[in-house]
Amino acid sequence: MADKSSSNAYWRANIRTIQLYLVIWFVCSFGFGILLRPMLSGIGIGGTDLGFWFAQQGSIIVFLILIFAYAARMNKLDKEHGVEE
Amino acid sequence: MDQFTLNLLVVGATFALYFGIAIWARAGSTAEFYAAGGGVHPVLNGMATGADWMSAASFISMAGIIAFGGYDTSAYLMGWTGGYVLLAMLLAPYLRKFGKFTVPEFIGDRFYSGTARVIAVICLLIASITYVIGQMSGVGVAFSRFLEVEASTGLFIGAAVVFAYAVLGGMKGITYTQVAQYVVLIIAYTIPAIFISLNLTGNPIPALGLFADAKSTGEPLLTTLNGMLADLGFSSYTQQSDTTLNMFLFTLSLMIGTAGLPHVIVRFFTVPKVSDARSSAGWALVFIALLYLTAPAVAAMARINLVNTVYPEGTTAAPLAYEARPDWVKNWEKTGLLKFEDKNGDGLINYVASKDANELDVNRDIITLANPEIADLPGWVIALVAAGGLAAALSTAAGLLMAISSAVSHDLIKGQINPGISEKGELLAARVSMAVAIVLATYLGLNPPGFAAQTVALAFGLAASSIFPALMMGIFSKRVNSKGAVMGMLAGLLTTLVYIFLHKGWFFVAGTNSFTDADPLFLSIKSTSFGAIGAMINFAVAYFVSNATDDVPADVQELVESIRIPKGAGAATGH
């Protein structure tokens, strides 16, 4: 088992990463798709607006990128803090 | 060859494939029955999770609901994919490190309490059985159409097949079978969508066709659809009609429910390493996204084709005469899921928004299955879609029955009631609980609380309000103790359950409800959206109760420390 201070630093770095990614997750789905849709109504796309696209397709693409980015980031953090398997 | 024979051939061939794989990989020990020994590659695991995840709700029901709901129903698309982000970051890697087989085991150990484990089992059973009810209505629709029988007969046949299938293999059989099922279902979903997209827009990629120009009008497809709907008095497809509050809470409920559903979480116990748990969630979403990016296109295009069928001369001209109705209408009339009632006696199919004047009643759950028939695609495509729908429903129903049976036999009987039970006795208990679950779900599936995807959404609300908060607090807080977790789960589950029963009938018995989702009890929050509120109640109760009671013991705090770092993860173990 890794020593206490290194695993604490690892956990703090993980929490910071999660917070950042959850902000993006929220803004691209609940934000652009629902709450902020009126603000995006001027940007047209195929007979509707950008908010509709985010709600039906864009958010899903963002989710995909987020998960793989998180997996890559954590693999790096695992190594940096010496807690990898 | 007629359509019926073709359906039987294609569906029969895919079934032979699944059963063949299930027999080939038959489960031997209890460990294999539950979790396949822990050696499944992330990409294969992702594909199997995709099949497990995409049920009758996603395949059969969702596009139909979106076709009739438009933008308002985007919650299904965002909710059922966004939950994977939460799963990958907040739950999967830590639960994999914990290294046991079931969700109640984690809750029992982390909250050092048999009571917590039993309550987790109860939450899991309620959410899973609700989910299976939704699956059974989907299975019923699929079987009734392809065997050309009444919907309830289709349901009974479907229940028998699901049961035989789930008992035969364990998880091990299921993992490899589900990879095959994923392949069948994604092909079945995509091929008709490509045909239809080519017909309507000339674009071979449905996801892009949705935002392309319609061939018929030269205007964007969605503008064309909105124009048609406006002529008939329907609300706009792309504008919001639901309240923002309800849409927000519904999306949130589906997302956290996704991350709290035991049959999905269990998947991540079986990957070899903690880092694989993170990437497995990504791979699962890749395979799910293939269908989910296509679904909104299927929905909008199906609505256009439906309106075009009824109004062949355009929405401003007279509709089709009932006598001239196409074969697909006749076929679906046999199932009782599509009905025509000539209210004004003019012999024409008047399909309009006004409830009093509308004469065509289309069950939302038939849209995906009927889609290739509506678009007049070749017979083999129609047969393929029937096979795909059954694959989706079967794989998920089997996965859920596994989760139910392991909760009863492993967590409840072996973990609490009779720890000395033999392996044989445990397997028997697992199979008996599967049988009970399927009988109950079939009975309630005869009068389901909603269309398949709506019933499934209720299950997500229940999982969101009970299991997700307990798991998340168990990992991210060292302060939440057994009393807090128990009270939190109970408060979240009970408020959500009561709210659902008030709107959908007590214990889902039709007619016993006091409110409807059209006019809900609290603000504008529909019963499908209440899970998010239940989850907030769960978090709040757990926090306050924990702060008012004793600290978490030191050894449990160490357990939390250890699951937070990947180092030292072994293979998953049973006890």
UniProtKB/TrEMBL annotation, chain A:
Sodium symporter small subunit domain mapped to chain residues: 8-84
Transmembrane ranges, per UniProt, are 20-40, 52-72
Keyword terms, alphabetized? Membrane, Transmembrane, Transmembrane helix
State if Transmembrane is listed as a keyword: yes
List, alphabetically, the InterPro entries matched.
Na_symporter_ssu (IPR019886)
Keyword Kinase listed? The answer is no
**Name under which the protein is recorded:** DUF4212 domain-containing protein
